[in-house]
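[Q] Does anyone have a clean structure-token version of this?
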Amino acid sequence: MRLFLFLAVAVQGYRESKRTYTPYGHHVATSGEFQNYQVSAGRSIHRSNTQRQYRFAPTEPSTRQRGSSNGRCKRGPRGLMGKTGPLGPKGDPGVCSPASCSNSNSVSYSNQQSPEDAGLKAAFSVTLSGAAFDDIGETVLFDTIVSDATNNYNSQEGTFTAASSGFYHFAAYGTQDDKNKPLHFSIKRGYLNRQFDDVLCSAQSNGSYQTSSCSTTVQLEKGQKVYVQLVKGDLFANRFHYTSFNGFQL
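[A] Here you go.
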């Protein structure tokens, strides 16, 4: 009986010596903390015959030398710069004068070429960013020009003037400055006699600091004006441009 127990222990020791442990398997096999009632130590042991198999990825060496056994090489020094290619053609100098090109908000054209001749169509965007506007019945004077490449918007009058006949699209957005004052504004098309100006679209808001908008597509004759009129309430202004007016030629 003693001989049998001795042989069993010897065989078990030989088997254990041939096993490869993962970090977790080694902990289970040596501590015995999870044996019998939670996890079997044998489940966390690899029964492979090689040390090249890992349960976890092996640590990569920090540097690699030329001629190393893994076949990878250390990056060498950067080579010399190649030959410079030929120069490209000179660009178009444009049609604006040096003085006018320095103004980022507008573009002026030479006497020989108009915006229409240059193939540009009217497009503008203006906003309120300084002070609220509350002149009821008057044209809204937007104080900030975001873009107006063809200079068709007059910030002093608050009007857009069509430089050529055609179809145009306009949109206006307004936010109440005072929650106790209902807001109402309109986009209007002007004629020679202002009493005949017609309303293209309107928007109103009775809520608390609500934003309302309207948009329209209309045919204009050369020289006709389009503007936003405040009918009731007041318009909010700040740097986030909640109140704006924009349009472009189709």
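[Q] Thanks! Anything notable?
[A] Helices lie at 2-18, 23-31, 98-101.
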